[in-house]
Amino acid sequence: MTLIVQGGKVHLVDEGRGTPTLFLHGNPDSADVWRGVIADMKGEYRCLAPDLPGFGRSEALANFDPSADGVARWVDDLVTAIGITEPLNLVVHDFGGPFGLAWAVKHPHKVRSIAVLNTVFHGSYRWHFWGRVWRTPILGELSMLLMSRFALRQEMRRGSPSLTNAQIDEAYALMSPAMKQTVLKLYRATDPAKLGDWEQRLLAVTARVPTIVVWGDLDPYISRHYADRFGARRVLHFKQWGHWMQMESPHEVADELLAFFGEHAAPMRKTG
């Protein structure tokens, strides 16, 4: 289905019934990255997965604000457009982390539980090689211009060795020029050094909101040690999976989320 959020069209997967559960993807992905997980969870939860603005089938916004405040505002406008009025479960990965976790910091009373998969929200983080390239003017544009199906296969399989060509090719098919520009804009606007205050505010949220971390330890972009820094009640490390664990092992991820969300199914008390 398609929604209008901040004046732009947003592609949204909306499947299942029950407690709303919002899945936020990262780069270079779309809502499709959650397909296998949603297939296992939609029997018990209403699973909502948008393409982030400028990604996949969602329109890029000319006036989009990529700051932490800006991405939090976009998620809140999305939730409002969907019509959700009860606390929801939040599942984030990669760049979906800054989007969703900034929103949770700003609106903790709207969050029932949080699940974190291979993302970063820490002031001490230093960008991986491609992050540094994409943050560099001209060099970043050149790397996007030269991006090929073969190059994406090589890089994504470095991040998650078990990904198939079909999975990677599906992502490549949605890499429009507008999406590539969105990626550059996000990387250039996101400075981990400015997340110090946000990181502390998130820890105040996760101290009250049930949080689980499901981490693929083969991730070459984000050290496994960051998994232990979200203040989560449960941290699970999987040595055989990488950055895109939800595509490599969707059933395993879904099982962990179903178990954790089921444990914390009682309505959360408002915290702000």
Helix content: 25-40%
- Biggest pleated-sheet summary: 8 strands, mixed
How would you classify the helix and strand content by structural class?
alpha/beta
Adjacency order of strands in the biggest sheet: 1-2-4-3-5-6-7-8
Estimated radius of gyration: 17 Å
Number of strands: 8
Choose one word for the global shape: globular
Query: What is the mean predicted local confidence, pLDDT?
Result: 94
Listing every helix as H and every strand as E from the N terminus to the C terminus, the arrangement reads EEEHEHEHEHHHHHHEEHH
Distance between the termini: 32 Å
Number of helices: 11
Strand content: 15-25%
Low-confidence stretches: 267-272
What do these coordinates show?
The chain is built from 11 helices and 8 strands. The radius of gyration is 17 Å and the shape is globular. It has 272 residues and is of the alpha/beta class. α2 crosses α3, α3 crosses α9 and α6 crosses α7. The chain has an 8-stranded mixed beta sheet with strand order 1-2-4-3-5-6-7-8, with helices on both faces.
Please give a quick description of this structure:
The protein has about 270 residues and is α/β, with parallel strands linked by helices. The protein is about 40% helix and about 20% strand. The protein has an eight-stranded mixed sheet with strand order 1-2-4-3-5-6-7-8, sandwiched between helices.
